[in-house]
C-alpha cells in the first residue's frame, strides 16, 4: 500500500469490496422482494423495521471502522503486535455490541413499531421480523468485524467470499422458508440471520487461517482499554452518523404517514427507495472501505502525495458511480418499483418520488468519497457533523415544511425535494471540513519524491 501506483491500488483494494457491498445490498433487498409477494402491509412492516436494522448495522460498522483505521495505521508503522491487539479488542467490542442490541430489542420492539403506525397487522408483522433478526444479530456483528479485519490487511477478495456466502444462503432460504414452509415474514427473518451467522463463521475461519498479518489469541485475551478508547473515538462518531440516518428514516416515515395523502403507501415507497438506493450507495461504501486503509497506511508512513492522490481519485470515482445510478433511477423508475410487485397507488406515488430523490446523487458522490478521509485520519467527528447537518438540520425540517405545503396545495411530490436540498448543503459542509483537515494535518506531512 505504500508503493503501488495509487490508481491501480484503489482498483485492487476497492473492486472486491465494491462487489462485496453489492452482495450486502442483496441482504437489504432480498427479504423485501420476497415479502412483497405476501402483501403490501407486510412490505410496509419491513420498511418500518428498517431504522432499527440500520442501527444494528451502524453499531457493527462503527466498531469495525475504528478497527480498520487503527489496524491499518499500525501496519503502516510496521507494528504487527499492535495490529493483532486491535483486532482482538475489535472482536470483543462486537460481542458487547450484540448484548446491548439484544437487550434493547427485547425491551422496545413493540413500542417502536406502535410509534409509527396504528395498523395492528403491520405492528404484528414488524414485531415478528424485528425480534428474530435482533435476537440473532450476533451474526451481523461478527460478520462485519471479521470482514473489516480482512479488508484492513488488504485481503479484500477473502472478505468478498465471506459476504457472498452469507448472501447466497439468505437468497436460497428466503423462498423456501417464506413460501414452501409457509413461515411468512418469520421465514424472511430466519433466512437473514442464517446467512449472517454462516458468513460470520466463515469470516472467522479466514482470519485464523488466511490472514498472517494478525494473530488472534482469544483464549488469553484481556481488554486493552487504551485500544478500545482509540477504536471508539473513531467508531462512535461513525455509529452516531448511522444512528442519525435511522432517526431521519423514522422521522420521514412519521411525516409521510401524517401529511402525505398516500400515508402508509407513501412510507412503503420511501422504504423501497432505501432498498433500491443500496445498489448505488453500497458500491461507493465499498470504494470507501478500500480508501480508508490506503489513506491510513500512507498517513502512518508520512506520505502526503499518496494521501492527496487517493482522496482526489476517490471523489472522482464516487461521483461517476453516483451519476450512473441517477441515470438508472431517472430512466426506469417504474421497472425498479415492479421488482417489489408494485401496482396502482404505489406506482403512481413511487415514479415521481424516485426521479426527484435521485437528483441528489449528483452531489452525494463527492461527499461520500471525501468522508472516507475523515475516518482514515481519525476525524470521525467530522463525518458526524456532516451527517447531522445533512439529515437533521436540513433534510428533516425541509421535508416537514414541504410536506405541510404539499398537503395544503395538493402537491404531495414536494416532500421529496428535501433530498436534493439537503445534499447541496452537505456538499458545502464537506468541502469546508476537508479544507480544515488539509490545512491542519495533510499539508504538514512530508512531500515525498
Low-confidence parts? none
Number of domains: 1
Mean pLDDT: 88
Percentage of residues assigned to helices: over 70%
- Cα distance, first to last residue? 16 Å
Count of distinct strands: 0
The succession of helices and strands, N to C, reads HHHHHHHHHHHHHHH
Shape call? globular
Q: Determine the structural class based on helices, strands and strand pairing.
A: mainly alpha
Radius of gyration: 21 Å
By DSSP (H or I, 4+ residues per run), the number of helices equals: 15
A few lines on this structure:
This protein is mainly alpha-helical. The protein has 15 helices and no strands.
3D architecture notes:
The chain has 449 residues and is mainly α. It has one domain. Helix content is 83%, strand content 0%. It has helices at residues 6-35, 40-76, 80-114, 120-135, 138-152, 156-180, 185-210, 225-259, 264-300, 304-331, 333-338, 345-357, 361-376, 380-409, 418-440. Helix 4 (120-135) runs parallel beside helix 7 (185-210) and helix 9 packs antiparallel against helix 10.
Amino acid at each position: 500500500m505504500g508503493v503501488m501506483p495509487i490508481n491501480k491500488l484503489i482498483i485492487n483494494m476497492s473492486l472486491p469490496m465494491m462487489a462485496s457491498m453489492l452482495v450486502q445490498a442483496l441482504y437489504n433487498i432480498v427479504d423485501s422482494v420476497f415479502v412483497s409477494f405476501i402483501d403490501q402491509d407486510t412490505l410496509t412492516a419491513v420498511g418500518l423495521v428498517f431504522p432499527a436494522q440500520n442501527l444494528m448495522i451502524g453499531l457493527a460498522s462503527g466498531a469495525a471502522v475504528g478497527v480498520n483505521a487503527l489496524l491499518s495505521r499500525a501496519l503502516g508503522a510496521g507494528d504487527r503486535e499492535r495490529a493483532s491487539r486491535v483486532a482482538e479488542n475489535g472482536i470483543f467490542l462486537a460481542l458487547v455490541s450484540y448484548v446491548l442490541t439484544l437487550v434493547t430489542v427485547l425491551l422496545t420492539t413493540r413500542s417502536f413499531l406502535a410509534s409509527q403506525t396504528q395498523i395492528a397487522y403491520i405492528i404484528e408483522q414488524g414485531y415478528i421480523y424485528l425480534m428474530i433478526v435482533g435476537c440473532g444479530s450476533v451474526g451481523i456483528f461478527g460478520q462485519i468485524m471479521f470482514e473489516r479485519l480482512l479488508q484492513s490487511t488488504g485481503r479484500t477478495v477473502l472478505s468478498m467470499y465471506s459476504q457472498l456466502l452469507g448472501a447466497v444462503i439468505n437468497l436460497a432460504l428466503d423462498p423456501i422458508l417464506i413460501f414452501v414452509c409457509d413461515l411468512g415474514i418469520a421465514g424472511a427473518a430466519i433466512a437473514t440471520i442464517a446467512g449472517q451467522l454462516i458468513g460470520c463463521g466463515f469470516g472467522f475461519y479466514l482470519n485464523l487461517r488466511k490472514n498472517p498479518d494478525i494473530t488472534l489469541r482469544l483464549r488469553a485475551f484481556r481488554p486493552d482499554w487504551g485500544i478500545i478508547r482509540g477504536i471508539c473515538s473513531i467508531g462512535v462518531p461513525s455509529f452516531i452518523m448511522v444512528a442519525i440516518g435511522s432517526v431521519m428514516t423514522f422521522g420521514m416515515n412519521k411525516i409521510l404517514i401524517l401529511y402525505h395523502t398516500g400515508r402508509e403507501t407513501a412510507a412503503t415507497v420511501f422504504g423501497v427507495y432505501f432498498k433500491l438506493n443500496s445498489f448505488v450507495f453500497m458500491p461507493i461504501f465499498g470504494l470507501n472501505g478500500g480508501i480508508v486503509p490506503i489513506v491510513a497506511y500512507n498517513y502512518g508512513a508520512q506520505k502526503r502525495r499518496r494521501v492527496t492522490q487517493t482522496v482526489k481519485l476517490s471523489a472522482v470515482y464516487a461521483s461517476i458511480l453516483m451519476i450512473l445510478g441517477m441515470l438508472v433511477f431517472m430512466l426506469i423508475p417504474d421497472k425498479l418499483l415492479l421488482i417489489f410487485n408494485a401496482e396502482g397507488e404505489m406506482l403512481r406515488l413511487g415514479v415521481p418520488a424516485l426521479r426527484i430523490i435521485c437528483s441528489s446523487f449528483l452531489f452525494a458522490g463527492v461527499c461520500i468519497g471525501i468522508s472516507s478521509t475523515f475516518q482514515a485520519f481519525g476525524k470521525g467527528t467530522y463525518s458526524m457533523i456532516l451527517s447531522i447537518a445533512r439529515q437533521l438540520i436540513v433534510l428533516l425540517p425541509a421535508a416537514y415544511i414541504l410536506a405541510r405545503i404539499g398537503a395544503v396545495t395538493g402537491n404531495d411530490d414536494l416532500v421529496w425535494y428535501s433530498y436534493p436540498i439537503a445534499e447541496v448543503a452537505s456538499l458545502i459542509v464537506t468541502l469546508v471540513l476537508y479544507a480544515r483537515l488539509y490545512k491542519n494535518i495533510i499539508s504538514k506531512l512530508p512531500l515525498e519524491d
